[in-house]
Amino acid sequence: VTGVQTCALPILDEKGNIIQKPIRELKRLRFQGREVSDGDTVKTELSFEAHLKANGDFKIELENILLLEYKEDELSLSFLNDKVGCGRDKRYARLQKCEDIRIIADCSSIEVFLDNGSAVMSSRMYPEDTETVLKLTGAGGMLCRLGSMEVKRGG
């Protein structure tokens, strides 16, 4: 999956709030799923989906790329070097709680869905490598690689 941004589908939740969920078609692209736990350091290709759960503060790092950190009701997404962020450095979101984290990333973009889509962060990114190391602190769940999506033009 190259250029996955944006794979979000806006919908209404049961309370009438607008939330965003990843498109259903991504399910067909998942393979090589494995469980990851708090404290794990896992090498992965930069075409993955992570569906994680947290209970309180957490840190999720893509080594040499970015840090996603939730602390004291604030979530930050920080690029770890100027080249990867290409001028972007940090994004913030205020959340009373953040227990559900879904990350969809490839070699040119990242989308982070928080608390079942109540908040979403998206960004382009330009890492030098197609692999990274995922470091988890305070979160765990499932990590799946994503295959390619073929887009056909009508006509």
Descriptors:
two-stranded antiparallel ribbon, disordered N terminus, ten-stranded antiparallel β-sheet, globular, 155 residues, 1 helix
Short account of what is shown:
The chain has 155 residues and is an all-beta fold. The protein is built from one helix and twelve strands.
Structure description:
With 155 residues, this protein is an all-beta fold. Helix content is 3%, strand content 57%. The protein is built from one helix and twelve strands; from the N terminus they run βββββββαβββββ. It has one helix spanning 82-85; strands spanning 8-12, 18-22, 30-36, 41-45, 48-62, 66-71, 74-79, 90-94, 100-105, 109-114, 119-124, 131-146. Strands 3, 4, 5, 6, 7, 8, 9, 10, 11 and 12 form a ten-stranded antiparallel β-sheet that branches. The radius of gyration is 15 Å and the shape is globular. The two termini are 24 Å apart.
